[in-house]
């Protein structure tokens, strides 16, 4: 399965002419989708949040977190599509790169972006506190995932506890690919 290998390493492991393969072609090998110079893909493996971070970074990218509404929608679709391919039943989820910061606000694990508790990305637009959960619950559920169940026909971003194994979404930016292929 291509997505278990580093996209950048894959490109450079062939003849020099293939080393210049563009992001779009490389992303197709990983069964991903390209948006805004970024390839988003779901590797064919499960792991904890930290294992997802390590895997994505080892492969030349990062654990994905949405930087736009379009990326968020594509990440939801990739997570849902991945579950359908695997014939998943019951609950299903994909780790994304948000971690609890304070007062139910989250930040990207690389600390570059902030996601407030009232963001429409939480719980299908209802915000992080939609179930009356307070700061103690936010410290307990200190990671984020895109999830859905057999009973819900749509994916939504929800809070998750550290240490749970889910699938995860990796992000490879065009500039990351270009830096690795130039080496």
Record the SSE blueprint:
Blueprint: H1 7-12, H2 23-29, E1 33-35, E2 38-41, H3 49-58, E3 62-63, H4 69-86, E4 91-102, E5 105-108, E6 114-115, H5 135-140, E7 143-149, E8 156-160, E9 167-168, E10 170-173, H6 174-182
Parallel strand pairs: 4-9
Antiparallel strand pairs: 1-2, 2-10, 3-10, 4-5, 4-7, 5-6, 7-8
List keywords for this structure.
six-stranded mixed beta sheet, globular, 183 residues, alpha+beta, 10 strands, 6 helices, Mannose-Binding Protein A, Chain A
Tell me what the structure shows.
The structure is a single chain. This protein has 183 residues and is of the alpha+beta class. The strands form 2 sheets. Strands 4, 5, 6, 7, 8 and 9 form a 6-stranded mixed β-sheet that branches. The protein has one domain: Roll (Mannose-Binding Protein A, Chain A), CATH 3.10.100.10. The N terminus is likely disordered. 31% of the residues lie in helices and 25% in strands.
């Amino acid at each position: 399965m291509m997505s278990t290998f580093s996209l950048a390493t894959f490109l450079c492991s062939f003849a020099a002419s293939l080393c210049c393969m563009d992001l779009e072609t490389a992303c197709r090998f990983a069964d991903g989708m390209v948006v805004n110079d970024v390839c988003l893909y779901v590797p064919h493996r499960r792991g904890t949040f930290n294992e997802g971070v390590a895997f994505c970074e080892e492969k030349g990218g990062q654990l994905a977190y949405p930087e736009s509404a379009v990326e968020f929608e594509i990440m939801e679709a990739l997570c849902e599509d991945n579950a359908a391919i695997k014939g998943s039943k019951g609950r299903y989820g994909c780790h994304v790169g948000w971690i609890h910061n304070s007062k139910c606000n989250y930040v990207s694990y690389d600390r570059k972006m902030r996601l407030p508790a009232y963001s429409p990305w939480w719980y299908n637009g209802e915000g992080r506190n939609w179930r009356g959960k307070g700061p103690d619950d936010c410290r307990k559920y200190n990671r984020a995932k895109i999830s859905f169940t057999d009973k819900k026909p749509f994916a939504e971003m929800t809070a998750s506890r550290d240490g749970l194994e889910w699938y995860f979404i990796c992000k490879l930016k065009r500039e990351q690919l270009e830096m690795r292929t130039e080496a």
